[in-house]
Amino acid sequence: MAGVEGWGALASGSDEVWDLLSEIEWMADQPDTRAAVWLTTRLHGVGLVAQDQQPAVSGLSGVLSLTQDGGTLELDSDNVAIELPATLEQPVQLDQLTSSVHWRREGSAWRIRLTDLAAAGHAARANGSVEVVLGEQAPQLDVELALASEDATALKPLVPRQWHPNLRAWLDQAVVDGRVGSGRLRIAGAVDQFPFRNGDGSFRLELNINPGTLSIGKGWPTIDDAVAQLIIDGESLSVEAVSGRMLGVALTPATVIIEDFREPVLDVDGGANGSVDRMLSFLSASPLASRVGYLDKLLEPRGFGHLDLSLDIPLKNNNATRFAGTVTLTGIELQSQQMPEPFRDVQGSISFSNDGLGSTGLKGVFREAPVRVTLSTERLDDRQVTRLALESPVRFDTDNDPWARMLTGAMRARLGGHATLS
Q: Measured between alpha carbons, how far is 19 from 34 in angstroms, rounded to an integer?
């Protein structure tokens, strides 16, 4: 076949060819006319041996019919290995492969089409079609497959070698386990342009994971019981997690995005609803522990709230991670070894980021007195200093004021009106 000379010939070993029937017809009185050739045979375990970085395949079985201008192969094969050395580090191992393969000559090129394709391997199933055009230029590929897998981790060897090593390392740890209920693979373009960085082709992989265990990075607690969709589109990645749990806390919908694989930065936005003590435990068990982990040791919260968290993690330099989050409190109780009595009915929000702590509308009740709390962080020399300010009204003209009761009767008798304690 023109254009495929580099693929070599039938592989040696246990290949079998039988029931071979061939016919050649030519016109004796027209010697310049091309002879007509027909051939049919049954194949078992045959393949194509590659040279250099060319693809290779072994283990093909089926019924072959061909002429000088085209042919068909009804594939019904077991234990097929496909090598794509320019794209994958390991061969694709298929337990089963069936398809109707048709090829025909188009000028100086050959068009090969696989229809009704069904494949099983790497704990996955695939159905769809593949078309390849081989000629003087780089092979053109058109792939449309529907996917499903009982073990998403078995697909990890199929990550393309063209992606950045840090990205491949992150993908390797991102899917801890899981089931792919459905998925889709679409590839179109010249194989030498993959992964189509200049927009001269398309690569899109969609995986619907349900359920799964995911990880956003080393040191972070895993997301358990996750229901999520992972999409790789060209040079970008997105994960839309509909639900999941982290350290037993129910997560709200979250997104993970990598805009450009060439400069991979992990952009994470998510949240959680649940007990505040578990939210603080999550922060202390994460890579943010050195920044905000002390809150878990300082405070003993009782009650429920909401956590919002945003992360920007450069995969080439995790130490440059930026983060920002907010814990919204809805009438909880705070206890601390530094406080003689609990701080009750605490409402408002506490924010945290690379720049320190802050607060919005933070208030509660301490010793039956209403208290407003302000958290702020400022830089002093080369370090951050967090300040805690408390404000509470004091009335000296009544015996019911909790702050006034801390004074002696003689002192209260000499004071009148009201003031603000800070």
A: 26
